[in-house]
């Protein structure tokens, strides 16, 4: 690549980053339906032609913003889980971080409200699975294999838990004005923690450690 080509590539990337940054800000504060392309290009300081060079339209731009948000939440979940050594603690820390992230007003509207409405449930769900939901599946797979969670098919369990957490996150998003002190989040986490604890294998059903010399 020539020096001029490198400069142009960098300019294109800067334009794309500006479009993503400003559209994310507008989508989060106003909602998808209230944001027009004219407002996005004006806030980004680019032309409408530049926008169409990178994206097919507003829905395509929103899709890119949603992917960025979901990947960000996925990283937060993975980092929270990674701060613990025990698989069970990793699971609970990741679930708690997902709920905490879902209370962030800058993420709520894009990820939970407009995401399914704009793209449709199937596409939104596929994107969610590619981001944070896969961490849940991986954690449950390890716990079932280790006998910490009662042996069962992981796929339906992961979908049920993921659906429960998404529903809880939507409830938190819709009820953000009820408890500015954060009680709703604490109560939701307590309920989810009890649900998770119910999955643990009892001593009678967990695999017994082999005795020395057995």
TrEMBL record:
Gene3D superfamilies: Tetracycline Repressor, domain 2
Record SUPFAM superfamilies: Homeodomain-like
Pfam families for the chain: TetR_C_41 (PF21351), TetR_N (PF00440)
Sequence ranges assigned to domain HTH tetR-type in this UniProt record: 13-73
DNA-binding region: 36-55
Keyword annotations: DNA-binding, Transcription, Transcription regulation
Record protein name field: TetR/AcrR family transcriptional regulator
Organism, as annotated: Streptomyces synnematoformans
Lineage, uppermost ranks: Bacteria, Bacillati, Actinomycetota, Actinomycetes, Kitasatosporales
